[in-house]
Design brief:
This protein has 359 residues and is α/β, with parallel strands linked by helices. Helix content is 44%, strand content 16%. Strand 1 (14-19), helix 2 and strand 2 (56-59) form a beta-alpha-beta unit. The protein starts with a helix and ends with a helix.
């Protein structure tokens, strides 16, 4: 196969990064950058990821003053104008409190602007501030997500919609415009640890993005098994059942450098964004090494260590996408940029080479 055909088909294992645009005081300098500066860093990271050859860039949705990104499609549309090939995804779209029609139209527009690079990872979100903000009831948490996900899938299939549900006004011969450049927008469901969510994603035939931010990945293995079993029972082809693993991470030339540079910012981030003042992260620097061990999900270390960690997880999940959140806790952009380069130029080629040997 020539290079042109390989590029058209895309890599068999994809690498990406994502950001939530958190605004946390730099624990070493004491400085806190402005939301404008933070968004400029997000755009710069996306450009660098695109130029370095990574496959996916994602931005997540929050509605708090300590995060700069609430309007995900707007940020991705800005990124689309300064990048050429990288896929652009939400990470995640909080679908429980967002009108699916608006979500679809926004991402279809992004798809047109980006030349067919838009994706959606839909989830329920780790924070709950969007419920009172947009006038939804917490007691409808699960039902809202299920109904909105089903509607979003239908919107992806049909230009004209007739639909009726519980939480929004009916659609009667409604024209859903614009249509994306791709035949359909790629849809993923973001999953924490719920087997029910994995079963739903498999039965619907959409991708599943598993967020494993710390601890052993082995307890999540059942999610991949449930997802594939459910997908097969619903008649979906194995090649259409895609799994992504998303993790916190940081890469430096040596393992000690990665630990030394990342730990203070990770510690600051965990405490700054905690949903409760009672949930204090108290892991000391000496103990932090246990949290980045080969059998732990936290992807911090040298390039070779990250390669080994991804390959170990691939044995568990058989996933075909890995995405790391690198820029947390006020970590200076120069360090983030260096980690992006190492992920693209050292980790990704080595992982793909080893997976090719197995195939």
């Amino acid at each position: 196969m020539n290079n042109e055909l390989q590029q058209e088909a895309g890599p068999e294992f994809e690498f990406g990064i994502y950001t939530l645009g958190d605004i946390v005081q730099d624990c070493l300098s004491g400085e806190t950058i402005s939301p404008r500066h933070r968004l400029q860093e997000v755009l710069a990271a996306a450009q660098l990821a695109d130029q370095a050859g990574l496959d996916v860039f994602g931005v997540g949705e929050h509605h708090r003053l300590d995060f700069a990104i609430s309007a995900v499609p707007v940020v991705l549309a800005a990124i689309a104008q300064t990048t050429k090939r990288i896929k652009l995804t939400s990470a995640t779209t909080v679908l429980s409190t967002t009108d699916p029609v608006r979500v679809f139209e926004d991402f279809a527009t992004l798809d047109l602007l980006s030349g067919g690079r838009a994706e959606i990872i839909a989830g329920r979100g780790a924070f709950l501030e969007s419920f009172p903000l947009f006038g939804y009831e917490m007691e409808d948490y699960k039902q809202l997500f299920a109904e909105n996900l089903d509607l979003l899938l239908e919107l992806n299939r049909h230009e004209v919609m007739n639909w009726e549900g519980r939480f929004r006004s009916p659609l009667k011969n409604a024209e859903i415009a614009p249509r994306p450049l791709q035949q359909k927008l790629p849809l993923w469901v973001g999953v924490g640890g719920s087997p029910d969510s994995a079963e739903r994603a498999g039965s619907l035939g959409v991708g599943m993005a598993i967020a494993i931010l710390s601890g052993s990945p082995e307890p999540f293995r059942n999610l991949a098994e449930t997802y594939r079993k459910s997908g097969a029972a619903a008649g979906h082809a194995p090649q259409d059942l895609n799994i992504a693993i998303t993790s916190h991470g940081y890469i430096a030339k040596t393992s000690q450098q990665a630990l030394d540079e990342y730990y203070p910012y990770y510690y600051a981030y965990r405490n700054a964004i905690s949903p409760s003042r009672d949930q204090v992260y108290r892991v000391g620097a000496d103990d932090f090494a246990r949290f980045v061990a080969p059998d732990n999900t936290l992807a911090v270390g040298s390039p070779q260590q990250i390669v080994e960690k991804i390959l170990y997880q691939h044995e568990l999940f058989g996933h075909n996408r890995f995405m790391a959140q690198l820029d947390i806790g006020g970590l200076p952009f120069g360090k983030v940029a260096a980690a992006i380069e190492l992920l693209a130029t050292e980790v990704a080629p080595a992982v793909r080479k080893e997976l090719a040997k197995k195939r």
